[in-house]
Each structure stands twice: as structure tokens, then as C-alpha cells.
Amino acid sequence: MESIRLSLTVGLSATLLSLPPAVAVAWYLERGRGPGRGFLQTVVMLPLVLPPVVVGYLLLKLFSPRGLLGGVLDRCGTPVAFHWLGAVVAAAVVGFPLFVLMIALAMKGVEPRLEVIARLLGRSRWRTFWSVTLPLSWPGILSGAAIAFARGLGEFGATIILAGRIPGETETIPLSIYAELESSGGETRIGTLVLASIALCILGVLLARGLDRWHRRRLELLR
Amino acid sequence: MRTIFTCILLAILGCRKSPSSPDTIVLYAASSLKECVTEIAREWSRRTGRPYRLQFEATSTLGRQIHEGAPAHLFLPAASEWLDPIPTLDRYDWLSNRLVVVVSLHEPEMDLGAITSLALTNEHVPSGKYARQTLSNMGWRIPDRVLYGHNVRDVLSKVSHGGAQAGIVYATDAAIDPNVRVAYTFPQESHDRILYSVALLQVDGRSFFDALQTSWAVEIAQGHGFLTWNRSDSLLR
Fold first, then answer.
1. Nearest-neighbour CA in chain A from B28: distance (Å)
2. Is the ipTM of this complex over 0.90?
3. The model's pTM
4. What CATH code is carried by the domain that includes residue A68?
């Protein structure tokens, strides 16, 4: 099934794409001291509460070939709207708030004294982040990745507007199910797709839990 | 606490009463008929004083909804085979249309044979069915990259937003979007005759059903670019 493979690549790419900014934003919200954190938090959480169709529309206005960014990206040879990358961007944007929430939660759980000690021992904030905060919040980052992946896998509203339905390019599992609803005798194919999406989500969550357990055991050994 | 509970209860009871009154006529029509039927309905309501509610979507979607029991008084599909599984009280052939290729205004002149991406509806939607018939009869290959719209207006908006180089829609759709131009009009013989039917599903819809074939309604439809159905033709078919 083409759409299952496509959903996997889109979901994974979206998760990888949003990992660095999600970590950066979560750190700034949790540990940063600069201005505008309240505002940033509101903006980051918007895709969680906005209707996905609204998110899709705004993204289309931004990325369409005649949009603010789309024209430039088109000329650079990386078109987003109505292309594979559009499905990735849509999935990444709607999964982003959950990703940030999970990472911020994990960072909150990191003992602040450890960071203070690292700083007292002369490490810069940057080195402290890399050697203390990040390694200790790995489990949260992984769970966040699993949830963002699962959310991206199920993305429909923003995707159908930004990327459209192009078989083999942007037709992920939800879009494929939607198309099959229109066709007569699509029930068996819908069944397969529904089972596949349930299986993928369970797999993602199990993977995250397994990694989390492995990580905890490693921490205990270190202690 | 009791006040809050009462308020919620009242709100629920209030919602039970549907916002439309019982003599509201519910009409389901193919998405390409949107502007035309809206104008006719407004005029009909002005003359009769009766309220109406219109629903526009792909014929296939509406047909399935009606088959599942959606409460429509009238159904106006863009291909009459969608009436076959539905019990109708009365029906007649109403309008016709032309099938065209639209391209974005921003697109430079191009060879239609060299199109690499095409926006279409799927084969169950009437416009998608007609488009596939004409492409195969004309010997045009469907490009590998097909962007699917869920109805013909969605196809139009995909072309208008630059999602595909070209799209196949009805001539009347092309006329409403200032961002596209007609690059080619398919010969009428290259596909089944495009036929909008009017079907009466519930007795209450009779007045609107009759109004649609009056001369003023047909004039409005012609004003929107629809072709009138030649009755002698329909007898020949």
C-alpha cells in the first residue's frame, strides 16, 4: 500500500524536521530568561487549538506559489504547497505544540541544581545544556517525538488544503481513507488502512516506551 | 448549581428545535450549480415567501448522503445515473454544460499535450467521469501527477492556487474564477452529454421543482452560462 509507506516517510520526516526547533523552543520556554516567552508560548500552542483547516489555509497563504514564502521556495526548487514537502510541513506544524509540551515537561523534571553545579564548575550555558539538560530530558524528547509522529500520521485538515491529494506524493493514510469513502466497494481497503494506522500508532508509542525504559536503566547503572 | 443545570437543560431543549422552520425546502445540488441555483432560489423565495436551504457538493457525495437518508426535497445531480438508486417522485432533464481545460492566468502559453500535472475529480464525480471519457477519446494521456479535488470547484481552486498546471472543469466554473483562463474547450461528442437533472424526492418540494423549469429560472441559468437541454435530443437518447 503506497499510502502507508508515504504516511511513514511523511510522519518520520515531519518529526525529524521539528525536533531541533521543538527542543530549542521548549528550552527557551522552560529555562530561557529572555523576553516574549508568554507570547511565544501562545503562538506555539495555536496549532493545537486552531481548527486544522484554518492552519492549512494560513500555511497555503504562506507557501502557495503566489504566497509570501512560496514564490522564493519555488525558485529555489523546493516547492512546498501541493508537493510532498507540503504534507511534511502540515504534519510538522500540527504536531509541534505536543512535541514542545512533552519536551518542556521533561526539562522541568531535570534537577535545576545539577545545572547550577555545572555552571559553578565553569561550564558555559551552552555546554551545560548539551551535557546536563539534554541528556537528562531524553525520555521526554522521545515520548514527544512518538506523540508528534502519531499526530502527524493522522493529520488531515491542514494536509488536504496545503498539499492536496496527489496519489504517491501526498496521499497519506487519512487522505486515502477519505478518497475510498467516495468509491464503491472501498470497505476492505478502508479496513486495511484503518488497521495500519492503529498498528503504526501503537508501534510508535511502544517504541518510545521501550527507549524510555532502556534510558532509565542506563541512568540507574550510572548512579 | 441547580441554576446552571437548568440553563444547560434549557440550552439543549432550545437546540432541539432545528433553526429552519418546517416548510423550509432543502435542495441538494451539484457544486457547479452554486451561483445559478442560489440566484434562482433567492428569486423563488422572493416570489413565494418560503424559506430554503441549499447544499452544494460533488454529485457523488450528495447522492450517497441522500441514499443514506439525508432529508432533501430536491436533488440536482450533474449526471443522471446518480438518480438510479434513489426513489424519485418526479424528474426531468434540465441543463447542460461544456467541459474545458483551465490554466492559471500566471501560467505562460503552453502546449496542452505537454502538461505534467493535472487537477481532476475522481472518477465517481461526474466532472471526473466526463473528463476521463474525453481524455481517452481524444487520445490524451493523463499525466502521472494528478491532484485530486473533492468536487469540481475544488479542482478550480487547486489550479487557481497554482497546485496543478491545468485542470478540467465545466465552462461555467471557469467563468467565475478571475485567476484562471480557458485553454481549451472539449468537443461535446468527446464525452457523454453533460446533463443536470432535477429530481423531486419529497412532495413538499413540488413548488420549487416546478419553478426550476419556468422561463425566468432558465433565463437565470443561461445568464450563468448553462446550456438548455434540447428536449428532442433527450427523446432520441
1. 17
2. no
3. 0.80
4. 1.10.3720.10
Residues of chain B predicted below pLDDT 50: 16-19, 232, 234-237
Of B61, B124, B147, the CB nearest to A164: B147
Task: State the smallest CA–CA distance between residue B56 and chain A in angstroms.
Answer: 16
Q: Which residue has the cell 514542545?
A: A100
B58 contacts in chain A (CB < 8 Å): 182
Question: Phi and psi at residue B105, in whole multiples of 5°?
Answer: -60, -30
Of B58, B147, B162, the CB nearest to A166: B147
- Tens of pLDDT along A24-64? 999 999 988 888 899 999 999 999 999 999 999 999 999 98
> According to the model, what pLDDT value does residue B237 have?
34
Sign, CA torsion A14/A15/A16/A17: positive
Determine the distance in angstroms separating the CA of B230 from the nearest CA of chain A, rounded to an integer. 31
Q: What's the CA gap between B211 and B219, in Å, rounded?
A: 12
pLDDT tops 60 at residue A155: yes
Domain range B99-190, its CATH number among 3.20.20.70, 3.40.190.10, 3.30.420.60, 3.40.50.300 = 3.40.190.10
Distances (CA, A) of A223 to A108, A118, A217, A219: 21, 17, 10, 6
Cβ distance of B148 and A167 shorter than 8 Å: yes
Q: How far apart, in whole angstroms, are the C-alpha atoms of residue A3 and residue A22?
A: 27
Question: Is residue A179 less than 8 Å (CB to CB) from chain B?
Answer: yes
Which of A70, A165, A182 is nearest residue B147 as measured by Cβ atoms? Answer: A165
Q: B121 in helix, strand or coil?
A: strand
- 3-class DSSP state of A201: helix
